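Q: Hi! First time doing this. I have a protein sequence and I read that you can turn it into a structure. Is that right? Here it is:
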Amino acid sequence: MLALFAIAVLAPLLYIPGLLIERALNAAPLGDRLELHYARTVIGALLHGWLTLTLAEFGVFSAWLHVLITALVCAASGLIAQRRGRLRRSESMATPRWQLVAAGALGLLVLVLAAQPFEVIIGGRTPHRLVFSGDIGRWNQPIIRDPRAPKGPVDTLIIESTY
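A: Yes, that's right. Below is the predicted 3D structure, encoded as structure tokens:
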């Protein structure tokens, strides 16, 4: 559940400030959409990294102050972009509806598969139990679930691990 919350919060938190800053700076649009979205996410990540380090250096870091300053930067960037006429969507940048539906369906599939370990029982005369565990990770991590053993006997166990 914490991973879903992080996805729902971090994606807009990184992307929206990058979008507004990019529009306020009146930067020339990049040709490739993926490159454009990546650039916006990097701008947002750089803003958050710089802001975190600056607040920590001054010894006044708090999450609420960080969010407040980010909101002020977004509001100021949005006003500048609006005055420059850069907040309107151009027809060339409009995303076709089928791409939005496909991206949403893919995102939902990833959320469903990543939320819980799953198992597949392959039928036939003798069922074969195949279990995919996801990343086994380490114990007692603040944002990662503790690993847990599969229930019952397993014929094939597929484990993803980054270690």
